[in-house]
Amino acid sequence: MSEAEEAAEVRALVAGHGDFAAGIVSAVGQITGRAEAFLTLSNRDMSAADVERAMRDQVEGRVEVIFTDLPAGSCTMAARRLQRERPNVVIVTGTNLATLLDFVFHTDVPAAEAARHAADKGRAALVVTGGSTGGH
Amino acid sequence: MAIELFRIDDRLIHGQVVVGWGQPLDLTFIVLVDDEVASSEWEQELYRMGVPPEMDVHFHTVDEAAGKLDGYQRDERRGALLTGDIETMARLIELTGAIRRVNLGGIHHRTGRTQRLRYVFLAPDEEQALRVLAARGVDVSAQDVPAARPLALNEVLSGEGNR
Protein backbone atom coordinates (compact mmCIF):
# COMPACT_ATOMS: atom_id res chain seq x y z
CA MET A 1 0.00 0.00 0.00
CA SER A 2 1.41 3.40 -0.89
CA GLU A 3 1.70 6.20 1.64
CA ALA A 4 -1.09 8.10 -0.08
CA GLU A 5 -3.40 5.08 0.04
CA GLU A 6 -2.60 4.52 3.70
CA ALA A 7 -3.45 8.11 4.48
CA ALA A 8 -6.86 7.74 2.86
CA GLU A 9 -7.81 4.71 4.95
CA VAL A 10 -10.58 5.36 7.47
CA ARG A 11 -9.24 4.38 10.89
CA ALA A 12 -11.44 6.03 13.52
CA LEU A 13 -14.62 7.89 14.33
CA VAL A 14 -14.53 11.33 15.95
CA ALA A 15 -17.76 12.19 17.79
CA GLY A 16 -18.83 15.10 19.94
CA HIS A 17 -20.92 18.16 20.60
CA GLY A 18 -21.86 20.73 17.96
CA ASP A 19 -19.22 21.01 15.25
CA PHE A 20 -16.46 19.56 17.42
CA ALA A 21 -15.82 16.54 15.20
CA ALA A 22 -16.05 18.37 11.87
CA GLY A 23 -13.94 21.23 13.23
CA ILE A 24 -11.12 19.22 14.74
CA VAL A 25 -10.96 16.88 11.73
CA SER A 26 -10.83 19.93 9.48
CA ALA A 27 -7.81 21.10 11.49
CA VAL A 28 -6.16 17.70 11.09
CA GLY A 29 -6.75 17.98 7.34
CA GLN A 30 -5.25 21.46 7.18
CA ILE A 31 -2.13 20.37 9.05
CA THR A 32 -1.54 16.89 7.64
CA GLY A 33 -3.80 16.35 4.64
CA ARG A 34 -5.08 13.20 6.35
CA ALA A 35 -8.61 14.17 7.35
CA GLU A 36 -9.86 11.10 5.51
CA ALA A 37 -8.62 8.97 8.38
CA PHE A 38 -11.73 9.98 10.31
CA LEU A 39 -15.46 9.60 10.15
CA THR A 40 -17.30 12.32 12.07
CA LEU A 41 -20.48 12.46 14.13
CA SER A 42 -22.29 15.30 15.91
CA ASN A 43 -24.84 14.66 18.65
CA ARG A 44 -26.62 17.95 17.97
CA ASP A 45 -30.35 17.72 18.76
CA MET A 46 -30.26 13.94 19.01
CA SER A 47 -31.61 11.65 21.70
CA ALA A 48 -29.29 9.18 23.35
CA ALA A 49 -30.87 6.39 21.30
CA ASP A 50 -30.36 8.34 18.07
CA VAL A 51 -26.70 9.00 18.88
CA GLU A 52 -26.16 5.32 19.59
CA ARG A 53 -27.89 4.30 16.36
CA ALA A 54 -25.93 6.79 14.28
CA MET A 55 -22.67 5.73 15.89
CA ARG A 56 -23.42 2.06 15.32
CA ASP A 57 -24.15 2.78 11.64
CA GLN A 58 -20.88 4.65 11.26
CA VAL A 59 -18.66 2.24 13.14
CA GLU A 60 -20.05 -1.16 12.18
CA GLY A 61 -17.38 -3.15 10.43
CA ARG A 62 -15.32 -0.08 9.62
CA VAL A 63 -13.43 1.21 12.65
CA GLU A 64 -12.56 0.08 16.16
CA VAL A 65 -11.40 3.41 17.55
CA ILE A 66 -13.74 6.18 18.71
CA PHE A 67 -12.49 9.59 19.79
CA THR A 68 -14.94 11.71 21.81
CA ASP A 69 -14.81 15.17 23.34
CA LEU A 70 -16.25 14.91 26.84
CA PRO A 71 -16.49 12.06 29.36
CA ALA A 72 -20.07 13.00 30.27
CA GLY A 73 -21.17 13.54 26.69
CA SER A 74 -23.85 11.47 25.02
CA CYS A 75 -21.35 10.41 22.34
CA THR A 76 -19.12 8.90 25.02
CA MET A 77 -22.13 7.19 26.58
CA ALA A 78 -23.12 5.77 23.21
CA ALA A 79 -19.56 4.62 22.56
CA ARG A 80 -19.47 2.81 25.90
CA ARG A 81 -22.73 1.05 25.10
CA LEU A 82 -21.23 -0.06 21.81
CA GLN A 83 -18.06 -1.14 23.56
CA ARG A 84 -20.10 -3.37 25.85
CA GLU A 85 -21.06 -5.47 22.83
CA ARG A 86 -17.68 -5.15 21.15
CA PRO A 87 -14.91 -5.13 23.78
CA ASN A 88 -12.29 -4.64 21.06
CA VAL A 89 -13.55 -1.06 20.54
CA VAL A 90 -11.17 1.53 21.99
CA ILE A 91 -12.56 4.85 23.24
CA VAL A 92 -10.44 7.93 23.80
CA THR A 93 -12.32 10.75 25.49
CA GLY A 94 -11.10 14.29 26.11
CA THR A 95 -9.70 14.30 22.59
CA ASN A 96 -7.63 17.28 21.48
CA LEU A 97 -5.88 18.17 18.25
CA ALA A 98 -2.52 16.79 19.38
CA THR A 99 -4.19 13.43 19.97
CA LEU A 100 -5.54 13.18 16.44
CA LEU A 101 -2.34 14.47 14.85
CA ASP A 102 -0.34 11.72 16.53
CA PHE A 103 -2.94 9.12 15.58
CA VAL A 104 -2.92 9.84 11.84
CA PHE A 105 0.84 9.38 11.60
CA HIS A 106 0.88 5.96 13.27
CA THR A 107 -0.45 3.86 10.43
CA ASP A 108 2.26 1.22 10.92
CA VAL A 109 0.56 -0.19 14.03
CA PRO A 110 -3.01 -1.38 14.66
CA ALA A 111 -5.46 1.48 15.18
CA ALA A 112 -6.11 0.51 18.79
CA GLU A 113 -2.41 0.73 19.60
CA ALA A 114 -2.11 4.02 17.75
CA ALA A 115 -5.04 5.38 19.77
CA ARG A 116 -3.37 4.57 23.09
CA HIS A 117 -0.15 6.25 21.95
CA ALA A 118 -2.12 9.25 20.70
CA ALA A 119 -3.90 9.63 24.03
CA ASP A 120 -0.53 9.92 25.79
CA LYS A 121 0.53 12.59 23.29
CA GLY A 122 -2.69 14.50 23.74
CA ARG A 123 -2.37 14.45 27.51
CA ALA A 124 1.19 15.73 27.33
CA ALA A 125 0.25 18.50 24.89
CA LEU A 126 -1.88 20.35 27.42
CA VAL A 127 0.48 23.05 28.68
CA VAL A 128 -0.09 26.35 30.47
CA THR A 129 2.36 29.22 30.07
CA GLY A 130 2.48 32.75 31.44
CA GLY A 131 0.44 34.46 34.11
CA SER A 132 1.05 34.56 37.82
CA THR A 133 2.59 31.50 39.47
CA GLY A 134 1.70 32.61 42.97
CA GLY A 135 -1.47 30.56 43.30
CA HIS A 136 -5.04 31.79 42.83
CA MET B 1 -29.62 25.07 48.27
CA ALA B 2 -31.25 21.65 47.84
CA ILE B 3 -32.42 20.60 44.39
CA GLU B 4 -32.06 23.57 42.06
CA LEU B 5 -33.18 21.86 38.87
CA PHE B 6 -35.86 19.30 38.10
CA ARG B 7 -35.18 18.34 34.50
CA ILE B 8 -36.74 16.02 31.95
CA ASP B 9 -34.05 14.94 29.51
CA ASP B 10 -33.97 11.67 27.59
CA ARG B 11 -30.16 11.74 27.60
CA LEU B 12 -30.19 11.85 31.43
CA ILE B 13 -26.58 12.61 32.44
CA HIS B 14 -24.67 14.29 29.61
CA GLY B 15 -22.59 17.37 28.81
CA GLN B 16 -25.37 19.96 29.07
CA VAL B 17 -26.31 18.75 32.54
CA VAL B 18 -22.88 18.10 34.03
CA VAL B 19 -21.11 21.11 32.53
CA GLY B 20 -23.76 23.44 31.05
CA TRP B 21 -25.91 23.52 34.19
CA GLY B 22 -23.47 21.99 36.64
CA GLN B 23 -20.89 24.77 36.49
CA PRO B 24 -23.11 27.88 36.81
CA LEU B 25 -25.39 26.29 39.41
CA ASP B 26 -22.45 24.77 41.27
CA LEU B 27 -24.16 21.39 41.31
CA THR B 28 -22.48 18.81 43.49
CA PHE B 29 -25.01 16.00 43.27
CA ILE B 30 -27.40 14.49 40.76
CA VAL B 31 -30.45 12.41 41.56
CA LEU B 32 -31.24 10.22 38.58
CA VAL B 33 -34.77 8.83 38.75
CA ASP B 34 -35.35 5.98 36.36
CA ASP B 35 -36.75 2.54 37.18
CA GLU B 36 -34.65 0.80 34.53
CA VAL B 37 -31.35 2.46 35.43
CA ALA B 38 -32.04 1.89 39.14
CA SER B 39 -32.19 -1.85 38.47
CA SER B 40 -28.99 -2.07 36.41
CA GLU B 41 -25.52 -1.86 37.94
CA TRP B 42 -24.03 -1.58 34.48
CA GLU B 43 -26.18 1.44 33.55
CA GLN B 44 -25.33 3.11 36.84
CA GLU B 45 -21.62 2.60 36.29
CA LEU B 46 -21.97 4.05 32.79
CA TYR B 47 -23.50 7.25 34.13
CA ARG B 48 -21.09 7.44 37.08
CA MET B 49 -18.15 7.40 34.69
CA GLY B 50 -19.56 10.51 33.02
CA VAL B 51 -19.43 12.80 36.00
CA PRO B 52 -16.43 14.39 37.71
CA PRO B 53 -15.29 12.68 40.92
CA GLU B 54 -16.45 15.56 43.12
CA MET B 55 -20.06 15.13 41.93
CA ASP B 56 -22.25 12.50 43.61
CA VAL B 57 -24.86 10.57 41.66
CA HIS B 58 -27.80 8.84 43.34
CA PHE B 59 -29.94 6.35 41.43
CA HIS B 60 -33.53 5.70 42.42
CA THR B 61 -36.75 4.20 41.22
CA VAL B 62 -39.68 6.62 41.24
CA ASP B 63 -40.99 5.13 44.48
CA GLU B 64 -37.61 5.37 46.20
CA ALA B 65 -37.11 8.94 45.00
CA ALA B 66 -40.50 9.95 46.35
CA GLY B 67 -39.44 8.75 49.79
CA LYS B 68 -36.08 10.48 49.68
CA LEU B 69 -36.98 13.78 48.02
CA ASP B 70 -37.55 15.65 51.24
CA GLY B 71 -34.07 14.68 52.43
CA TYR B 72 -32.51 15.89 49.20
CA GLN B 73 -34.42 19.15 49.48
CA ARG B 74 -32.87 19.72 52.88
CA ASP B 75 -29.36 18.95 51.62
CA GLU B 76 -26.97 21.86 52.12
CA ARG B 77 -25.44 21.27 48.69
CA ARG B 78 -26.96 22.10 45.31
CA GLY B 79 -28.29 19.28 43.19
CA ALA B 80 -30.30 18.40 40.09
CA LEU B 81 -32.97 15.74 39.70
CA LEU B 82 -33.29 14.11 36.29
CA THR B 83 -35.90 11.93 34.66
CA GLY B 84 -35.74 10.59 31.14
CA ASP B 85 -39.39 11.17 30.31
CA ILE B 86 -42.46 13.16 31.24
CA GLU B 87 -44.30 10.18 32.69
CA THR B 88 -41.61 9.53 35.29
CA MET B 89 -41.53 13.17 36.40
CA ALA B 90 -45.35 13.27 36.51
CA ARG B 91 -45.42 10.15 38.70
CA LEU B 92 -42.87 11.67 41.06
CA ILE B 93 -44.89 14.88 41.31
CA GLU B 94 -48.04 12.87 41.90
CA LEU B 95 -46.39 10.93 44.72
CA THR B 96 -44.73 13.89 46.43
CA GLY B 97 -46.67 17.03 45.51
CA ALA B 98 -43.42 18.81 46.31
CA ILE B 99 -42.05 19.85 42.94
CA ARG B 100 -42.94 23.37 41.89
CA ARG B 101 -40.86 23.84 38.74
CA VAL B 102 -39.96 21.48 35.90
CA ASN B 103 -37.44 22.08 33.15
CA LEU B 104 -37.90 20.48 29.72
CA GLY B 105 -34.31 19.95 28.67
CA GLY B 106 -34.37 17.37 25.91
CA ILE B 107 -37.24 15.27 24.58
CA HIS B 108 -36.18 14.21 21.14
CA HIS B 109 -37.78 12.87 18.02
CA ARG B 110 -39.67 9.61 18.19
CA THR B 111 -42.52 8.20 16.11
CA GLY B 112 -45.79 9.87 17.10
CA ARG B 113 -44.16 13.01 18.43
CA THR B 114 -44.45 16.48 16.90
CA GLN B 115 -41.59 18.97 16.98
CA ARG B 116 -42.29 21.90 19.31
CA LEU B 117 -38.75 23.19 19.74
CA ARG B 118 -35.37 22.23 18.36
CA TYR B 119 -34.94 19.94 21.36
CA VAL B 120 -38.54 19.22 22.35
CA PHE B 121 -40.80 16.79 20.49
CA LEU B 122 -44.10 15.79 22.10
CA ALA B 123 -46.79 13.18 21.55
CA PRO B 124 -50.41 14.22 22.24
CA ASP B 125 -50.53 12.29 25.53
CA GLU B 126 -47.27 13.92 26.64
CA GLU B 127 -48.67 17.39 25.87
CA GLN B 128 -51.73 16.53 27.92
CA ALA B 129 -49.57 15.31 30.81
CA LEU B 130 -47.68 18.63 30.79
CA ARG B 131 -50.95 20.58 30.74
CA VAL B 132 -52.10 18.60 33.78
CA LEU B 133 -48.89 19.47 35.61
CA ALA B 134 -49.31 23.15 34.77
CA ALA B 135 -52.95 23.07 35.88
CA ARG B 136 -51.90 21.81 39.29
CA GLY B 137 -49.51 24.73 39.68
CA VAL B 138 -46.21 23.32 38.44
CA ASP B 139 -44.18 25.89 36.50
CA VAL B 140 -43.23 24.00 33.32
CA SER B 141 -40.75 25.64 30.99
CA ALA B 142 -38.27 24.61 28.31
CA GLN B 143 -34.63 25.64 28.48
CA ASP B 144 -31.79 23.50 27.18
CA VAL B 145 -28.94 25.55 28.66
CA PRO B 146 -28.84 28.33 31.29
CA ALA B 147 -27.91 30.99 28.72
CA ALA B 148 -31.09 30.34 26.72
CA ARG B 149 -34.35 32.13 27.47
CA PRO B 150 -36.76 29.85 29.32
CA LEU B 151 -39.89 29.24 27.28
CA ALA B 152 -43.19 28.87 29.11
CA LEU B 153 -45.28 25.80 28.37
CA ASN B 154 -47.82 27.78 26.33
CA GLU B 155 -44.99 29.09 24.13
CA VAL B 156 -43.72 25.55 23.66
CA LEU B 157 -47.09 24.05 22.78
CA SER B 158 -48.13 26.90 20.50
CA GLY B 159 -44.91 26.67 18.53
CA GLU B 160 -44.11 30.32 19.35
CA GLY B 161 -40.80 29.20 20.81
CA ASN B 162 -39.68 28.07 17.37
CA ARG B 163 -40.11 31.51 15.82
How is this structure best described in words?
The complex is a heterodimer of chains A (136) and B (163). Chain A is α/β, with parallel strands linked by helices. In chain A, 48% of the residues lie in helices and 13% in strands. Chain A has a four-stranded parallel sheet with strand order 2-1-3-4, with helices on both faces. In chain A, helix 2 packs across helix 5 and helix 3 packs across helix 4. The radius of gyration of chain A is 15 Å and the shape is globular. The termini of chain A are far apart. In chain B, helix 4 crosses helix 5 and helix 5 runs parallel beside helix 6. The relative contact order of chain B is 0.18. The model of chain B has no long low-confidence stretch (mean pLDDT 95). Classes of the chains: A alpha/beta (136), B alpha/beta (163). Chains A and B meet through helix 3 and helix 4 of A and helix 1 and helix 3 of B.
Provide keyphrases for this structure:
heterodimer, A: 136 residues, alpha/beta, 4 strands, B: seven-stranded mixed beta sheet, two-stranded antiparallel sheet, 7 helices, globular
Short description:
With 136 residues, chain A is of the alpha/beta class.
Helix content of chain A: 40-55%
Number of helices of chain B: 7
Order of helices and strands of chain A: HEHEHEHEHH
Q: Give a short account of the largest sheet of chain A.
A: 4 strands, parallel
Helices and strands in order, then pairings?
The complex is a heterodimer of chains A (about 140) and B (about 160).
Chain A: H1 3-8, E1 12-16, H2 20-32, E2 38-42, H3 48-59, E3 65-68, H4 74-85, E4 90-93, H5 97-104, H6 111-124
Chain B: E1 2-9, H1 15-25, E2 29-33, H2 35-38, H3 41-48, E3 56-60, H4 62-73, E4 78-83, H5 86-96, E5 101-106, E6 114-117, E7 120-122, H6 124-135, E8 139-142, E9 151-152, H7 153-158
Parallel strand pairs in B: 1-4, 1-5, 2-3, 2-4, 5-8
Antiparallel strand pairs in B: 6-7, 8-9
Helix pairs in contact in B: 4-5, 5-6
